[in-house]
Design goal:
34% helix, 22 strands, 548 residues, six-stranded antiparallel β-sheet, globular, 17 helices
């Protein structure tokens, strides 16, 4: 069950392990997927289709087919407004962008590309869609985000955001996935495509200033006057991601003391320290990947980083170093709902089923409703759009929230706003978020949490995804009576794709991996590390027995 830590973890990755960008790009253009091989078919997970050109899971044919499928979906639904599209700094993102533009233009879609070819963070796409659609009931916009998030440099990703600004729901992604796979099976017969040079010059291709539009609106969600007045000294590491050129304009426009640690962009991401398994990941919640910023923590009052598409955040404090995502999210929720007086009284707190139960305790103390959803940020988009959710978050450091006046900001994850809020918290409370977390847990209890992996066959994974509470063969876990067994999320009744078991002193959840021969066990104890280890050990036994 335990992870085997690579000797390279937290250190510079050896040159021999860096991705060969030329080979990666050649494979993208030259290799074709075999639709009879499941791993080479298009599959939309919680955040779009992801893969690598080297194993034929993210190649030109995939992108041409997915983009045509999105065009077909738009036509079937009468969606005829502009499509906002952006890409991150992964090597495969630019060729995927070019292919998408060829198809979008051939289908007559008005396509909003970034001014001067600037990289575009995920939240800037969501923000642009929502700003355009404000007050409209027809001609609505939607978007495409080209990113595999924090995944390794050989990865590519492609995601569709609907007119609510958030990730497309399951019904839509299934439609797009099935149509795209059918197009690949037909040898791309039915895909409309225009030469790239012609597509870039087409009247339907228009530039949009994502950077300045997003930056100019940040004052509606962050109290920069407070941060500037308190003289908070901040550092930011963009980790070579899509927001790399956003931070300096933020500092200049709002006259805040913010230092950009590095503005380097490198498709090999050779400047990163290796993650726990020796692979490079731009994961701002990993202590191994974040070694550069952790090493600089004493230079700043607070420092932060974002992943490659800037939809996740990591916060480094003098008092606690790199904060666990669950720890900072709890502090953030506690702070925001006390200092956003214009948020509606009914604005709820949103979290996924595998996010810390400390948030449950914070919500109860605040007198706020808790909306607990399956994994996937799409479950929070509609609530953020209509204001019934003040905040939505995932345990993997993804979150979004309302503007200060209680209206929608972004309905996809935004890593930059939570990062900047760490400075607002420091300014208002006179303590960094690490100290605030210690005080919070002194009052509400300290959680001990971990996530481990256990081996599983495809048949076992399929069974786990549909496991029912009745299939568990015990009524106790870690010495306590089981109080709840959930296979659907309390907030919306949707299947969680696994099972969650809750006792008085802790809980565990088990979900199959979408890409590996494992299932994931999440566990949290409010008693001790020893109790947590017992929870994890017994959780695997309980799940394995149910899968026999």
């Amino acid at each position: 069950m335990s992870q085997i830590i690579s000797p390279y973890a937290g250190k510079a990755a050896p040159a021999s392990t860096l991705v060969d960008v030329g080979k990666l790009l050649s494979a993208y253009a030259d290799l074709r997927p075999d639709p009879s091989v499941p791993a080479q078919r298009i599959a939309f997970g919680t955040s779009g289709h992801r893969g690598s050109s080297l194993d034929r899971s993210f190649n030109e044919w995939h992108i041409l087919a997915i983009t045509q499928a999105i065009c077909d979906y738009r036509k079937s639904q009468g969606i005829d407004g502009p499509l906002f599209i952006g890409l991150d700094t992964h090597a495969l993102s630019l060729p995927a962008f070019d292919n998408a533009l060829e198809v979008l233009t051939a289908n007559g879609v008005e396509t909003m590309i970034s001014a001067d070819g600037e990289f575009t963070p995920t939240p800037a796409i969501s923000h642009a869609i929502l700003v355009y659609n404000r007050g409209r009931s027809a001609g609505l916009a939607d978007g495409i985000v080209i990113t595999p998030s924090h995944n390794p440099p050989d990865s590519g990703g492609f995601k569709y955001n609907t007119s609510n600004g958030g990730p497309a729901g399951t019904a839509i992604t299934h439609w797009v996935q099935n149509r795209a796979n059918a197009l690949i099976e037909a040898g791309l017969d039915g895909v409309r495509r225009m030469p790239l040079a012609q597509a870039r010059k087409a009247a339907s291709t228009r530039e949009h200033d994502y950077l300045n539009t997003y930056v100019a609106d940040l004052a509606s969600i962050i109290d920069f006057d407070l941060i500037r007045g308190a003289g908070v000294h901040m550092g930011v590491d963009p980790l070579g991601g899509a927001g790399v050129h956003y931070w300096a304009p933020i500092a200049e426009r709002y006259r805040i003391d913010l230092t950009v640690v590095s503005d380097m962009v490198d498709p090999q991401f050779a400047f990163m320290s290796a993650d726990w398994d020796g692979k490079i990941r731009m994961d701002p919640s990993s202590k191994y990947a974040m070694q550069r910023l952790i090493g600089l923590k004493d230079r700043y009052d607070v420092a932060f980083a974002c992943d490659t598409d800037h939809d996740r955040h990591g916060v480094v404090t003098r008092s606690a170093g790199l904060m666990e995502p669950n720890h900072y999210l709890s502090v953030l929720i506690d702070y925001l709902f006390q200092h956003r007086p214009h948020w509606g009284e009914r604005a709820a707190v949103g979290k996924t089923v595998v996010t810390t139960a400390l948030i449950d305790r914070v919500a109860r103390r605040l007198g706020r409703t808790l909306f607990e959803a399956p994994v996937g940020f799409k479950w929070f988009s509609d609530g953020l759009l209509d204001g019934s959710l003040g905040f939505g978050c995932e345990e993997s450091a993804g979150a979004s929230l309302l503007r200060r006046d209680g209206t929608v900001w972004a309905t996809d994850k935004d890593g930059m706003v939570p990062a900047l809020l760490s400075a607002e918290i420091t300014a208002r409370r006179g303590e960094d978020p690490g100290s605030a977390y210690t005080r919070l847990t002194d009052e509400l209890g300290k959680p001990f949490a971990s996530r481990v992996d256990a081996a599983a066959t495809p048949a076992q994974k399929a069974k786990l995804a549909k496991l029912s509470p009745e299939q568990l063969r015990t009524d106790r876990v870690a010495g306590e009576k089981i109080e709840q067994v959930l296979s659907t999320a309390p907030g919306n009744g949707e299947p969680i794709g696994g099972i969650k078991v809750v006792a008085a002193g802790g809980w565990f959840a088990a979900r199959p991996s979408g890409t590996e021969a494992i299932y994931k066990i999440y566990a949290e104890s409010f008693k001790s590390e020893e109790h947590l280890r017992t929870l994890l050990r017994e959780a695997q036994g309980i799940v394995d027995a149910a899968l026999e």
